[in-house]
């Protein structure tokens, strides 16, 4: 009887035990513009100290058939919680989701087209979906939790890169990291993490970057975002006809005002009164297109959600966070503390990219799985920001250290004028506060585009980005 009880108690453990097995990737051959390449699609394991697989990280590996030593670019998007489909099918890969010329959503059904501005022209490409995104999975929920933090994310993606270099014999290649949004936080963190483990990069490509979250979080007592968002508010108001004048001149005025009179006014808090407050309010209205009455009601501090809701309220429209050129239908409301019903710029992208990625991976790349390709909803717990908590995470110091230890590493930064998720002036502020040695400051170049967070959905910016990144790789790849 005792033996029977023992067997009954042990059975559930055996039933619940899950072991992940290594997978054989799928390899397809293709060509674009006379350039032949292979695309390898699969999942690479992440092991624990005992050699047990803790997670499988999904990837695409594009390799051009060439005898020459080619750069290798590792790429990922952000979130945290986003897979790499945006950079993959938006700008870098040989296939691209067809959008309207300005980046707006076309009528369904959606289609893929060849991308004449692909980055295979100047490097082989690896697209990485971190654990919990895309088809990447941990072995169980307990194992997954350690990957869903700033530290765990950097460590797991760093281990993927190390193992990839080993298995694909790419240690001698010029190496690059390309990240977008939170992917730039990851990339700069990785540059510091991996250089301590013998992996040095020729360059970082930061698309719509955020290294210091102090520039983005409208927390109580943190006035910095109001200043660094102002030039993007100005560009957006100009685009929608709420203010008039030359765009570049207006942006220049907003930059000057942001860290001039406006910054001093914010610092005074409730001590700002009378004529000085009136003057600041009038100037802020002229640069944002928001009424003086509204600005007074929000204490001269319109956060991103208030701005997106208020700018085109008279049209019953809100403007996009990822790309403020786009407007979406929004119910009219009356309070000063409301936010928009949705981000119209995200809504116009989600359908085309999700559908076309699933088609591409399963049909053109031949990857067979019943798994859902998780876009933003695969991470099942709040992200662990580590010691920063809900304050201000920051990987800018990791970048400074990596550049100091590897003075050959270049940094290319791409920002959009209409990006309200990671504003271009916030990036300029962060770069100017890296405390870099003077000899290294020329290693960073910043390029700006008349588009939003994913500037490459705009066809003119797509071509410009490919050309400027190609020039950057050519200058930094070495011999």
Describe this structure in words.
The protein has 479 residues and is an alpha/beta fold. It folds into 2 domains: 324 residues, Rossmann fold (3-Layer(aba) Sandwich); 119 residues, no CATH class. The protein is built from 15 helices and 14 strands. The strands form 3 sheets. Strands 1, 2, 3, 4, 7, 8, 9, 10, 13 and 14 form a 10-stranded mixed beta sheet that branches. α2 crosses α12. The chain is globular. The termini are far apart. The relative contact order is 0.14. The N terminus is likely disordered.
Indicate the radius of gyration in whole angstroms: 24 Å
Query: What characteristic shape results from the CA principal axes?
Result: globular
Second CATH tier, the architecture of the largest domain: 3-Layer(aba) Sandwich
Major pleated sheet: 10 strands, mixed
Which keywords apply here?
single chain; 479 residues; alpha/beta; Rossmann fold; ten-stranded mixed beta sheet; 15 helices; 14 strands; disordered N terminus
Ordered list of secondary-structure elements with their pairings:
Layout: H1 2-16, E1 26-32, E2 35-47, E3 53-64, E4 72-76, H2 85-92, E5 95-97, E6 112-114, E7 124-129, E8 137-138, H3 141-145, H4 150-168, E9 175-181, H5 182-195, E10 203-209, H6 224-239, H7 247-258, H8 261-268, H9 274-288, H10 292-297, H11 304-310, E11 317-319, E12 327-329, H12 344-364, H13 396-405, E13 410-416, H14 424-432, E14 444-449, H15 459-476
Parallel strand pairs: 4-7, 4-9, 9-10, 10-13, 13-14
Antiparallel strand pairs: 1-2, 2-3, 3-7, 3-8, 5-6, 11-12
């Amino acid at each position: 009887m005792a033996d029977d009880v023992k067997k009954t108690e042990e059975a559930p453990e055996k039933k619940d035990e899950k072991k992940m097995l290594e997978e054989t990737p799928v390899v397809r051959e293709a060509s674009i513009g006379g350039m032949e390449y292979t695309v390898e699609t699969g999942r690479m394991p992440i092991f624990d100290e005992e050699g047990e697989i803790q997670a499988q990280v999904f990837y695409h590996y594009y390799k051009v058939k060439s005898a020459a030593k080619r750069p290798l670019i590792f790429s990922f998007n952000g979130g945290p919680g986003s897979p790499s489909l945006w950079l993959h099918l938006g700008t870098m890969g040989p296939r691209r989701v067809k959008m309207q010329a300005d980046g707006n959503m076309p009528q369904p059904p959606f289609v893929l087209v060849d991308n004449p501005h692909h980055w295979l022209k100047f490097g082989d490409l690896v697209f990485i979906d971190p654990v919990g995104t895309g088809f990447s999975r941990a072995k169980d929920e307990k194992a997954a939790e350690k990957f869903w933090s700033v530290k765990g994310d950097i460590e797991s993606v760093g281990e993927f890169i190390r193992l990839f270099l080993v298995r694909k014999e790419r240690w001698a290649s010029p190496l690059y990291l390309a990240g977008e949004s939170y992917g730039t936080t990851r990339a700069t963190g990785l540059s510091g993490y991996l250089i301590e483990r013998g992996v040095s990069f020729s360059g970082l490509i930061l698309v719509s970057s955020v290294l210091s979250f102090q520039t983005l979080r409208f927390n109580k007592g943190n006035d910095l975002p109001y200043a660094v968002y102002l030039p993007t508010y100005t560009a957006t108001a100009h685009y929608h006809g709420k203010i008039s004048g030359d765009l570049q001149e207006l942006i220049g005025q907003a930059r000057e005002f942001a860290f001039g009179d406006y910054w001093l006014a914010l610092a005074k808090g409730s001590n700002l009164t009378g004529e000085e407050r009136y003057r600041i309010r009038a100037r802020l209205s002229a640069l944002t297109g928001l009424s003086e009455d509204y600005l007074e009601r929000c204490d001269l501090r319109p956060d991103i959600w208030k701005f997106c809701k208020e700018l085109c309220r008279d049209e019953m429209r809100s403007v996009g966070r990822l790309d403020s050129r786009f407007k979406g239908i929004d119910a009219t409301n009356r309070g000063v503390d409301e936010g928009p019903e949705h981000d119209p710029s995200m809504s116009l992208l989600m359908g085309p990219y999700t559908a076309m990625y699933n088609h591409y991976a399963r049909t053109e790349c031949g990857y067979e799985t019943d798994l859902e390709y998780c876009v933003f909803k695969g991470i099942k717990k709040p992200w662990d920001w580590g010691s920063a908590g809900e304050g201000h995470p920051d990987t800018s110091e990791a970048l400074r250290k990596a550049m100091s230890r590897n003075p050959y590493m270049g940094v290319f930064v791409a920002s959009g004028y209409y990006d309200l998720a990671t504003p271009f002036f916030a990036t300029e502020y962060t770069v100017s506060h890296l405390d870099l040695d003077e000899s290294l400051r020329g290693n960073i170049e910043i390029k700006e585009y008349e588009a939003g967070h994913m500037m490459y959905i705009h066809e003119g910016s797509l071509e410009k980005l490919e050309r400027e990144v190609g020039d950057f790789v050519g200058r930094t790849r070495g011999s």
